[in-house]
Amino acid sequence: MNNFDMNQLMGMISKMDKKELEKGMKQFSSMLSEKDKETIMKQFNGANFRKYL
Fold this sequence. Notes:
By secondary structure, the chain is an all-alpha fold. It has helices at about 5-15, 20-30, 35-45.
């Protein structure tokens, strides 16, 4: 997952409806407020973002 690029991000966003996008952005913002890389990755992997990839 270290090579996550903008094309993947845009593809993921394009598959979401507005409510999913707003929820995902809030959740993603919360994850990024963490200081520990491992915690961020655990939250990301458990957040169901992969279903949009």
